[in-house]
Amino acid sequence: MTHPSPQTHYRTCNLCEAMCGLEIKAAGDQILSIRGDKDDPFSRGHICPKATALEDIYHDPDRLKYPVRRTAHGWERLSWEEALSEVVTNIQRIQAAHGRNAIGIYLGNPNVHNLGLILYNAPFIRSLKTKNRFSATSVDQLPHQFAAYLMFGHQLLFPVPDVDRTHYFLMLGANPLASNGSLMTAAGIENRLKALQKRGGKLVVIDPRQTETAVLADEHHFIQPGTDALFLLALIHTLFAEGLVKPGRLAEFTDGFEAVEKLAADFAPETAAAHTGISAATTRQIAQDLAAAASGVVYGRMGVSTQKFGGLCQWLINVLNILTGNMDAPGGAMFTLPAIDVVGLTTLTGQTGNVGRAHSRVRGLPAIGGEFPAAALAEEILTPGEGQIRGMVTVAGNPVLSTPNGGQLDQALAQLDFMVAIDIYINETTRHANIILPTTTGLETEHYDLVFHLLAVRNTAKYAPALFEPAEGMWHDWQVLRELRNRLEGTDKVDRTSIPGKFDFQKRLPPAKILDLALRFGPYGAHAFNGRITGHNLTLAKLKRAPHGIDLGPLQPILKERLVTPNRRIVLVPEPLLADLARLKEHFFSSNGQPSGSGQPSAYNLRLIGRRQLRSNNSWMHNVPRLVKGKERCTLLMHPADATARQISHGQMVTVSSRVGQVQLPVEVSETMMPGVVSIPHGWGHGRTAVQLTVAQAHPGVSINDLTDECELDDLTGNAAFSGVPVAVTGL
Ligand SMILES: Nc1nc2c(c(=O)[nH]1)N[C@H]1C(S)=C(S)[C@@H](COP(=O)(O)OP(=O)(O)OC[C@H]3O[C@@H](n4cnc5c(=O)[nH]c(N)nc54)[C@H](O)[C@@H]3O)O[C@H]1N2
Ligand SMILES: Nc1nc2c(c(=O)[nH]1)N[C@H]1C(S)=C(S)[C@@H](COP(=O)(O)OP(=O)(O)OC[C@H]3O[C@@H](n4cnc5c(=O)[nH]c(N)nc54)[C@H](O)[C@@H]3O)O[C@H]1N2
Ligand code: SF4
Ligand SMILES: [Mo]
Known about the structure:
Elements: E1 7-12, E2 21-27, E3 30-36, H1 53-59, E4 68-71, E5 74-77, H2 80-98, E6 103-107, H3 115-128, E7 133-135, H4 142-152, E8 160-161, E9 168-172, H5 176-179, H6 189-198, E10 202-206, H7 212-216, E11 219-221, H8 228-241, E12 254-255, H9 257-264, H10 269-276, H11 280-292, E13 297-300, H12 302-305, H13 310-323, E14 333-334, H14 342-348, E15 355-359, E16 366-368, H15 377-382, E17 391-395, H16 399-402, H17 406-414, E18 418-422, E19 435-437, E20 447-448, E21 458-461, E22 463-464, H18 477-489, H19 505-508, H20 511-520, H21 540-544, E23 550-554, H22 559-562, E24 570-571, H23 575-589, E25 606-609, H24 625-628, E26 636-638, H25 640-645, E27 653-657, E28 662-669, E29 677-679, H26 694-698, E30 713-714, E31 719-720, E32 725-731
Parallel strand pairs: 6-7, 6-17, 9-10, 9-13, 10-11, 12-24, 17-18, 18-19, 25-29, 26-28
Antiparallel strand pairs: 1-2, 2-3, 4-5, 4-19, 8-14, 15-16, 20-22, 21-23, 25-32, 27-28, 27-32, 30-31
Helix pairs in contact: 2-18, 3-18, 4-13, 8-10, 8-11, 8-13, 10-11
The structure holds ligand MGD (2 copies), iron/sulfur cluster and molybdenum atom (MO).
Molybdenum atom (MO) binds next to loops.
């Protein structure tokens, strides 16, 4: 037998947001090596231990290779025709009997990492004609989108920290050394942060845990979970009080400076310090250092987004960057101009975002960007009445492990009339499906990062064809979405319209053709009318000839042209955010000085936060042996003083309980925790019955979201408030 000769393939890792270039050597369907691609102009050879997992996922025997139906005797194989027609029949049956909104849909995180899903999701979702749409956005970055929409006019105008040029980096609620960066695509972030320090700059981390990133930082300050908005207001207060406000050129196109000064007047550093635990002197020093830096940036991620005042936090962070003249300036918070300009394209189609037009049936929570909070999904299934969700579609999501009070959702999904999951595994969520439609993933898919080029610290472009042909009979995600849509709309006929703007790209074209058009007409495209950027003449063919990717240069100040607010000016103080300050004051400054309305029994006297781990990716990569080997990682971190007070010792099993549930896991006593705060990593909890993940089940851990509370939200945005859940810990 002859062996196939080794081939070298270049692509981008699509597991997290960092966009690392990979060099993969393969012979036939065997992978010989996966290394960092040193010639990738963006990632310059960096990878993390998860990159090699792409091989394991490709070969994972638990990964589904054909559609399956759940029966009383286990899962049985179906043909695609049987599966698709059964799915469509059931969706239509439920909608005919109970109305369009009786079907709900939840989209998970890999939707933004998968080209086919990004391109074909929107028309598929429209074909379901339901307003019951949910996604991982509302357990993640929704507050960023909310603030961007109100201040800049488009929910995707994300300011990205210009880490490679900044001189002062104030980071709140992010741990890029574990997460590899988020809303800051910056492969090799550790080296970039070290380079900042080498050029004399400073990294300051604000976090209730001394994280891996905090260890690297020049300064780390503990903060009481959920109090960041007060700290940020105190920084703004100080800038005004000490005459440090210098917005520079931004003043020409920004409204609202006086209003900010006025609203910050109530938040002296001393007032904030009582709640945050960061002293007034430290707060003033940080404000002064930020203002004095040649360039500086304030950046906040998950830890400040998923808290009770997440919307306020992301707004105030933008305000700080504007007041110090660092917004849209090198070394500050900048905006990308990617080769496929998702912001420009969605502006053309009028999809800039929207806030609170509809409200959820049971709790009246606002829909933002056309979606309800994921925290409301279970109650919409469980509460009888007109508009109750009776059927669910999940696409690349595992909300049982990822949304607050996942235990309740677990029960709710079990009661559905029908559920279909488009997913690659039988996991905690998809085990409730009647039918699972499995798709190709990772190395079997072509890749262009539509989302993460938009969030990157440098403009680059890169395309990779699939490395492997799909296994016999496998479908791509986009093919499944397109077929379901055609059947739901009752037409698989090709739409012949040639009217620009009415052309149905997803119906008529495969992903690569859509990409090619978007590149050609994009800002660096061969057909670009925009004469500002010349010389690149991008087409898909040109990207194919540059397998390491193409560098399009450092980020440029472009906000003025990008703004899509009605008067093309920055709104420094949007009305809904200003109004939300009343809620903040009520919470922290009610008469007894205690958070008002909490009414928690005093037993819940610790505050729970999460954590990310380098060899993990949300809930779905624990079936990879090399990522779970070694000592138990799903542990409760606890400060020694808190352990001693409860007579708990290192390694001991404990019960952690909250209003909604309880879990048992071992304790790691550690001075890295702020006293009074404990931490459990998210994405574990594979011990549930009927999960079919052999390796993950042998390393199950417990789910932090069996403790987090679906009623603890940022009321303004509906985002889950994971940070600071009141819990009790007792030894077993
Ligand atoms: N307490 C707490 N909860 C959290 C967080 C936290 O920090 N703390 N983090 C939150 C955040 S930021 C996020 S983004 C969410 C994530 O929440 P989810 O998106 O709901 O969860 P994931 O674990 O990403 O699940 C991804 C699913 O997609 C499937 N999948 C993987 N690749 C593919 C593919 O190519 N195609 C298809 N069709 N399916 C695929 C996997 O099998 C898995 O079922 O969790 C959130 N939950
Ligand atoms: N290895 C790995 N990488 C990942 C993921 C993963 O699961 N594993 N998930 C990916 C996804 S979906 C995302 S969204 C990104 C997230 O990327 P990051 O935002 O960098 O994620 P975290 O590591 O969760 O960092 C949140 C930090 O906030 C801190 N924190 C908690 N509460 C508070 C608070 O009230 N105030 C402050 N100031 N800090 C607080 C936590 O201690 C933690 O260090 O990571 C992505 N990358
Ligand atoms: S950092 Fe993220 S993109 Fe880079 S190799 Fe690891 S998982 Fe892949
Ligand atoms: Mo996320």
